[in-house]
């Protein structure tokens, strides 16, 4: 049995299948850990979600910001924009089953000494605190009425810093932003959600979330995606950056947990 953690697929089914062939993935005994953003921007979001749903017993996955946007679209709570690939999922004959599975996924998965999360964990939170706060969002998504309310208030960059005193939609929004959208922040957790370039774009007190020596999860192994501009390089111990820009013609990367060996599939075909 082997476990492969894979970065942002974003509807790129052909590179995923190429990568699974390369690592000789065996659906009878192997597992896939997926770091979120399963859909959006790539050419085959619906087909990708169908493929993953068929193999769901072998999959441990977390939600990314694009997955949450798809769910918001399904609930009629997403801002209006051109999302034809995602609307195709909503309108598909099996869309309800696919979306129900997607909505059931957590924001963090912890097992075997690793934490899987889409964007990262802010330096002010321990792994245990991050799990507890992620569970609050999971609870909001567990029923239709509370999920509809969650998606109605999900969008926005404020509050941009954590406080234990936060409650209601603001509390859930900042938890979600930390776990699914964060790149740069300050040591005390203030977010910069505008900057999307690599670490060279750090400014003032805003640095990559994993770079702070006082980070409470520095001794925990964290697998994350989301930040394609890192090109798979996070200059810190115990963090594994797996978004290597597949949807932009880069690579799709898998980390084998048993020995932390990396394998990649070329995604340049998507740019042809």
Automatic annotation (TrEMBL):
Keywords: Hydrolase. Its EC number is 3.6.1.41. It catalyses: P(1),P(4)-bis(5'-adenosyl) tetraphosphate + H2O = 2 ADP + 2 H(+). Residues 4-131 form the Calcineurin-like phosphoesterase domain. Signal peptide: none annotated. It holds the Pfam family Metallophos. It comes from the Bacteria. NCBIfam families: apaH (TIGR00668), PRK00166.1 (NF001204). Hydrolyzes diadenosine 5',5'''-P1,P4-tetraphosphate to yield ADP. Belongs to the Ap4A hydrolase family. This is Bis(5'-nucleosyl)-tetraphosphatase, symmetrical. The lineage of its organism: Bacteria, Pseudomonadati, Pseudomonadota, Gammaproteobacteria, Cellvibrionales.
